[in-house]
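Predict the 3D structure for this chain.
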Amino acid sequence: MSQTLRMRSLLVMGASAVAISGFAVPAFAQQNTTVIEELVVTAQKKEEALQDVPIAVSAFSQDSLEAQKIDGGPNLQLAIPNVTFAKSNFTNSFNFQIRGIGAKAVGASADQGVGVHMNNAPQQSGNLFEAEFYDVERVEVLRGPQGTLYGRNATGGVVNVITAKPTDMFEANLRAEYGNYNSMKLRGMLNVPIFGDKLAVRLSGTSLKRDGFVTNTFNGNKVDDRDLYSTRVQVMFNPTEKLRTNFLWERFHENDSRARTGKQLCTKDNGPATVGGVPTGASRVFLTQGCLSASLYTPAAYGTVNTSGSLTGLLGNIFGFTSGDVNAGDTTSTNLREIETALDPIYQSKSNTYQFTLNYDITDELTFTSMTSYGKGDVWTKQDYNRNVATVPFNNTPFTPGGFFTDPQVGRTNKFTTIDVSSGRSEQFSQEFRLQSAFDGPLNFTVGGIHFTYRTLTDYYVIGNSLTLSSLALNFSNTGNPNCNPATTARCIGIDTSADPTGDGHNYYLNRTPYNLVSDALLGEVYYQVNDDLKFTLGVRQTRDKKAVKNYSTVLLAPGYGLTLNPTNPDQRARFNETTGRVGVDYKARLGFTDDTLLYAFYSKGYKGGGINPGVPANSVGIQQTFDPEFVNAIEVGTKNTLLGGSLLLNATAFSYDYQGYQISKIVNRTSVNENVDAKVHGFELESIWSPVRNLRLNANIGYLKTKIGDGVSSIDTMNRTQSNPAYTVVKVGPNASSVGANCVLSTVGVATILGAGAGATLPFACSGAAAYQGFLAAPAAAGGAGLPAPTAAFLANATGLYTYGAGYSIEGTAANLSGNELPNSPHWTTSVGAQYTFELSNGWSATLRGDYYRQSKQYARVYNTAYDQLKSWDNGNITLKVEKPEWGVAIDAYVKNIGNKTPIVDAYTTDDSSGLFTNVITAEPRLYGIAITKSW
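Done. Predicted structure below.
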């Protein structure tokens, strides 16, 4: 038997290795006593009973995952205190957040705050939110900064998925499940020893196919379905007692209509009827931002974007192929599981992961470990950019004869149609070496190094017939020929005529990011065992991160053809060299009222690398190219207790973080811009399991979290650029600026004067500043200007007070004070309780009934903490029944998830000014129920 298996057998004393988690609940098993078995974990890169690990860690066996219906990464939040999870707005991205720390930065070079590992190997990109857990030995979730033991830095914590390894015993199982939404799941495993404990092969796999949770009311189709599978092959080869190896190949494949984003909400902004007492009239269309900053929970939130507040609507109104809001009079269904889109989503994803792990006992006290991991993945998704179909067709114009237009990518239609395509290709490699001691003396250590490389190419397209129409109109205005050749004609916008975009056209938006990361680190910990009860730990990590991006400018509606590297900085690079670590003490106290008590206190410094913001238009100003690293100084104290003869486990943890440079993101000028803010984080966690009588298990987890952004932090809120100051008015940015379609802020007095002079239609051109505005006003109409007399142009641009700003204000608006605000996705309270009871039936049968309840208090989706940002509290209840006869290896499960069939908004994403500031909301799954049968051999 291998050394690993011997250790596990000793620790669990022959019992079923089931999760108690920090804490996960024990899996279904007939219990002959009230003593709670402990799961063996490797949180500190060595096998230890969970209650002996001085870290806040939760661990779940495969049986425990099934018992609590934790099917995949998104469900982990239901069983761990101070954890939240939500998928993000873009492809294969998510925010797994621990104690307020996660991934709110957006961009290829942005690292996760919570590191995801598979068999201890870091996964920069993976399938945590797409795939389901299957054939795992356990899933460990470590809370708090990690880095001295794990390959990649993590300021929030680590999720480590440990796959079940080949063993020297034949075993197999097959599980078939059917549920509502026509859900069909298959899961299986086959373990075959070939040559005793020397050579064994383990095959496992899972598949999921179900109908969609969401109805597309435009065509009646069910979307957001699933059609995916994953397979895994592992080979154990242990030629000697001292040399143990394991090879793994895992493949994932998905092809369905998974929706990257959910319902789209908007409290319509009709624009002001008057400005400074002057009626806005026809110019009102240039004074709307599309959607207002208002609560997502009012009936008005189910409005539609005022398209005049978007880039495409602005240009349509200027060039005449639309007249005002093409969504006029339209609202959306109040059912969060209904959308209206002209295009059903398409989601395609595949990946392959290869790992080779070698353990060699140099001596009885020294073990050398080598972990090699390689992964490659591709994701391609396509969906309607909007969640409603326009009600008003195009006007009859030379560009839209009869109100119809044939777009090369969108096709022929008579209404606004916009789609987005998000794709990425990634490749990663890691090599880690580690040397670990097991001396009998007081001093032991774990030291090692890791080399990690990651390459990716991400493309994000926004393609719309109104964008192509705008390109044609601008070409006609600038050159007199809508179909001009950009190679021979100055100021000509190149139009891609291919059905599938080549990436060269300037008639659509493309943000392309080729990104390379090279990260090297030396890391390790030293342990000094003073006596049987007292141990000191010192950990150190030296990290060097090198990041590089080919800095492509976004070229929507810009003259020319093809992608263009930023002329001033075509190769953007960022390097970071940081030393971090942790120091602490743990003590096994001998108290009269407990069976075992572990006390621990640690200080740790965490680090997450900075990065490079995605591309922007070439002549953009005021947008930083890079963002800074994150640092956290964390203090954590905790206790783990076993009481009442082993029938009660009670753990408690308190923590305090001083956060420097927390990375957040917002959309500005059609791209993600990441900023850094300082913050304080405090909280505590209580976790318990109690078996008061035979066959009855109760568990309860409570997490409290208080986050506070530091003093002196401010940021412009694109939802409210004026901070509701009536002295200023929001105006759409016209086509004479690279930020066309965004919003600018002008003085209300000046805007009123322009309106009173009958020049309201020129206001979008004022957003480029006084000189450019005067030039436009004075330019002849034939040259694309307003054709006003020079004295009038000079007066309107310079003498109306249009650009008169008070302290703190500019043409961009004014920054909101964030001091004292809460970090996003950081609810004050997370609570989960559960209970299970096993009924012993005749002939060796048993039935176990289990119920789980989870509640999360209100939170904010953004750092601005406005009424618009607030997300309501929500809860979830699950119930399961398992009937089994171990002698036959047969088990039958029935379950109901989300008993109340609630549809909470768990996160929200705000788009930019040029899209009209609509909100994509992320919701939880609906009520799911089903039955499964498992046969084990």
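The helical segments are 3-12, 62-67, 311-319, 465-479, 748-756, 770-778, 790-798.
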